[in-house]
Automatic annotation (TrEMBL):
Pfam families membership: VanZ
Domain named VanZ-like: residues: 17-134
Transmembrane portions of the chain: 9-28, 65-82, 89-108, 120-141
Xref: InterPro entries: VanZ-like
Annotated keywords: Membrane, Transmembrane, Transmembrane helix
N-terminal signal peptide: none
Organism listed in the record: Brevibacterium permense
Highest taxon above the source species: Bacteria
Protein name as it appears in the record: VanZ-like domain-containing protein
Amino acid sequence: MTDRDQRTVGAPLALLVLYTLFIAAITLTPQQMGTGPDTLIGHALDLFAAHRETAWLTYERVEKLGNVAMFIPFGFLAALHFGRRRWWLGFLFGAGFSAAIEIFQGTVLTQSRFATLSDLVTNTLGAGIGALLGLCCLAAWPKGPSRRESEKELAPV
């Protein structure tokens, strides 16, 4: 391993694969999450609208915040997987994955989904926030011994 700590290799990649499949299941299927008045989201929006302090939480804003929040773990796990030197790939892969989703929605799922630039921007923003959080965790996590140091410790005297 060059810049990645041995402890941060397998788990983030496995979680990243699982989380990528989760995002794909949410975004690449013809059926959208229930957003009608008799759904959980509809009831929550009614509750928000009933109070002056939360009336600003419209469906459009909740959707945008949800897109950002959905991609934060993606960027975070990708940054942990790629390590300190290449943490920014979490942001880049998040942007690429979001672009692929939007292209698929805009070409294959045109009857039930809508590809928007807003989704691309908010998803990418979320991935960037997650990647920065991952970098912060990597910086705070004590760096393990390098491969050379480990080999010296194991070498016979």
